[in-house]
Specification:
Helices cover about 70% and strands about 0% of the residues. The chain is mainly alpha-helical and about 130 residues long. The chain has 2 domains: about 5-65, no CATH class; about 70-130, no CATH class. The model has no long low-confidence stretch (mean pLDDT about 75).
Amino acid sequence: MSITDLIPVSIRDKFVPSKIPTVTDAYLLNADLDPNSYTRRVQEIGKETLEYYTEAANDVRKQSIESGLFTNLSLKQIANNMSVTFVGILDDIIEGKRSYSELFRQDRIIYIGLLAILIGLAIYIIDLTS
């Protein structure tokens, strides 16, 4: 197993492992046989490699945040997505698509469940006040 097998597929596809400098590259590129310059070059290669993987990890983190996970959304975005979801459901009903698979498409089930919780909470508050 090589070090590239430990890299997540999303990073491996985006970055080319052959561009990652290695210690053997540092030795071959080092014309000076002084051990201190070799050590310095190896440290530079290590720093470049660390920067490479840091950039790759930051890109993966940024993609996961931008992907719109429900837990990362603001209340305004949740309300907007909920309205878009229910308009889409109404459009499907009007077009005659009345199967359960239409309810489970994309993130619809999350917003349907959220609406059910809000309706239940509203009924509970109404029952308490009367």
